[in-house]
C-alpha cells in the first residue's frame, strides 16, 4: 500500500508516537498486540470453523446472509464485496432485529455475535424456525452459542476475552472457510494464508509500534489526520467495506468522528455539499482508499475528486492498496486502518479498548 500526503506535519511532531511509555499509559489492555495478531487470527479462523463446517450440508445456497452488528458484522461486508466481484451466490449483511422477508429455505443464515449477547442478533435468530433455512453461529459463547447448541446448529467457537472488533481475523477466517464449503468463495484457505503472509510482512517492516514514526506510514497518516473530522471515500465494488472498517475503528478505538462516502454514488449528491457550514468544510480530512482494479471511470472520478476537495480546502490523503489478490488487498487495507486508528487513539489520548458510549447504551437498554 502506498500512502501519499503532506510530510511536514509528521516531521514537526517527530517521535510523538515512538514512546513505549506513552503507549503503555494510554493502552493498558494492549490493543496494539491484538491488532498485530490479525494475520495469526486469519490463519486460525479456518481451524475454528472446521468442526462447524462438518455439520453443514455443502449444497450451494441461493443467498448467503450474515446477521450481526458492529465488529461482528464487518467480516460479512468483506465477504460481500468479494462475492460481488467473483462469486455466484449473493452475500447480504443484516444489521437489524428482523431478517428481510425474502429469506427462504434455500438460503443460508450465519448469525455472528462475538459476545453472543447482542440483542438485534438474538432477535434475528428467533426468526430462524419460521424461515426454515440452513444456519450456523459464529460466537465466543453467550446466549447465542447456547441456544444454537440446544437446537443442534453448528457453532464456530471463537476464542474469548477480546473486544469484538479485535477478533475480525478470527471471524473473517472462519467465515471465509464456511463460505468456501458452501461454494460462495473460491480457494479460501490458500488465499487467507497468502493474505496473512503479506499483512504480517507489512506490519513487521512498516506498521508496528516499534517501527519509528519517520518510517511508519500508519503513524504518519494518523498525525496528518489529528484534529480533522474524517471522510473515507471508497469504490462500492472494491474497498467500501474497508472504508467502513476504518470508520468503525476510528469511532471505537480512536474516539474520533468519521464517515463513509461511496463512489460513484457520492458524485451524484455529496460533491455539492462541500460548501456549508464553511467553518466545518475546511476542517475535514478526506481519505481516498483506492484499488488498482477500480473501474476506470471510478478511477477518473477519484482523480477529479482529489483536485476538487483540495480546492475546497479539505486535507486529502490517498491510499493505494497493493497485491495480486483482491482478498489480500482488502485485508491489507483493514490492517493499515487498524494501525492508523490505534495511533490516532494515542494522539487523542483515548484508551483504544474502552467503549464508554456503546457500553452505556447497551446497559441502558437492558433496564
Ligand atoms: O466492536 C465492538 O465492540 C462493537 O461494535 C460490537 O461488535 C457490537 O456492539 C456487537 O457486539 P457483538 O460483537 O458482541 O455481537
Indicate the topology.
Elements: E1 2-4, H1 8-12, H2 20-26, H3 31-36, H4 38-54, E2 64-68, H5 74-86, E3 91-94, E4 108-113, H6 119-125, H7 128-131, E5 134-139, H8 142-150, E6 155-157, H9 168-181, H10 188-207, H11 217-225, E7 230-235, H12 240-252, E8 258-263, H13 278-281, E9 285-290, H14 296-311, E10 315-320, H15 326-348, H16 356-366
Parallel strand pairs: 2-3, 2-4, 4-5, 5-6, 7-8, 7-9, 9-10
Antiparallel strand pairs: 1-10
Helix pairs in contact: 4-9, 4-10, 5-9, 5-12, 10-15, 11-15, 12-15
The structure holds 5-phosphoarabinonic acid.
5-phosphoarabinonic acid (PA5) is lined by residues 69-72, 113-115, 118, 121, 163-165, 252, 355, 358.
Number of domains: 2
**Unreliable parts:** 2-13
* Rounded average pLDDT: 95
Q: Treating each run of at least 4 consecutive H or I residues as one helix, how many helices?
A: 16
* N-to-C span: 46 Å
Helix proportion of residues, in percent? 40-55%
Amino acid at each position: 500500500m502506498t500512502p501519499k500526503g503532506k510530510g511536514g506535519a509528521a516531521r514537526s511532531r517527530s517521535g510523538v508516537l515512538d514512546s513505549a511509555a506513552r503507549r503503555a499509559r494510554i493502552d493498558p489492555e494492549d490493543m496494539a498486540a491484538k491488532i498485530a495478531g490479525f494475520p495469526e487470527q486469519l490463519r486460525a479462523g479456518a481451524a475454528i470453523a472446521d468442526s462447524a463446517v462438518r455439520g453443514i450440508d455443502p449444497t450451494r445456497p441461493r443467498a448467503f446472509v450474515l446477521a450481526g452488528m458492529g465488529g461482528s458484522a464487518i467480516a460479512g461486508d468483506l465477504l460481500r464485496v468479494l462475492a460481488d466481484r467473483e462469486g455466484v451466490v449473493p452475500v447480504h449483511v443484516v444489521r437489524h432485529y428482523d431478517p428481510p422477508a425474502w429469506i427462504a429455505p434455500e438460503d443460508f443464515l450465519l448469525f455472528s455475535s462475538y459476545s453472543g449477547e447482542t440483542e438485534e442478533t438474538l432477535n434475528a435468530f428467533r426468526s430462524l424456525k419460521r424461515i426454515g433455512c440452513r444456519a450456523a453461529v459464529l460466537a465466543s459463547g453467550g446466549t447465542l452459542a447456547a441456544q444454537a447448541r440446544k437446537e443442534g446448529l453448528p457453532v464456530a467457537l471463537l476464542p474469548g476475552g477480546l473486544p469484538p472488533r479485535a477478533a475480525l481475523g478470527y471471524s473473517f477466517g472462519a467465515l471465509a472457510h464456511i463460505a468456501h464449503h458452501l461454494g460462495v468463495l473460491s480457494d479460501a484457505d490458500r488465499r487467507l494464508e497468502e493474505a496473512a503472509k503479506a499483512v504480517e510482512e507489512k506490519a513487521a517492516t512498516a506498521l508496528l509500534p516499534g517501527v519509528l514514526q519517520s518510517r511508519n506510514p500508519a503513524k504518519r497518516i494518523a498525525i496528518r489526520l489529528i484534529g480533522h473530522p474524517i471522510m473515507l471515500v471508497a469504490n462500492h465494488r472494491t474497498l467500501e467495506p474497508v472504508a467502513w472498517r476504518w470508520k468503525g475503528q476510528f469511532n471505537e478505538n480512536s474516539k474520533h468522528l468519521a464517515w463513509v462516502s461511496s463512489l460513484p454514488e457520492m458524485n451524484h449528491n455529496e460533491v455539492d455539499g462541500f460548501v456549508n457550514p464553511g467553518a466545518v468544510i475546511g476542517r475535514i480530512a478526506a481519505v481516498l482508499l483506492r484499488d488498482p482494479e477500480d473501474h476506470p471511470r471510478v478511477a477518473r472520478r477519484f482523480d477529479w475528486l482529489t483536485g476538487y476537495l483540495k480546492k475546497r480546502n479539505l486535507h486529502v490523503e490517498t491510499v493505494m492498496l497493493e497485491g495480486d489478490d483482491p482478498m489480500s488487498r482488502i485485508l491489507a487495507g483493514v490492517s493499515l486502518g487498524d494501525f492508523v486508528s490505534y495511533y490516532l487513539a494515542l494522539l487523542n489520548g483515548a484508551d483504544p479498548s474502552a467503549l464508554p458510549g456503546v457500553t452505556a447504551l447497551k446497559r441502558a437498554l437492558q433496564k
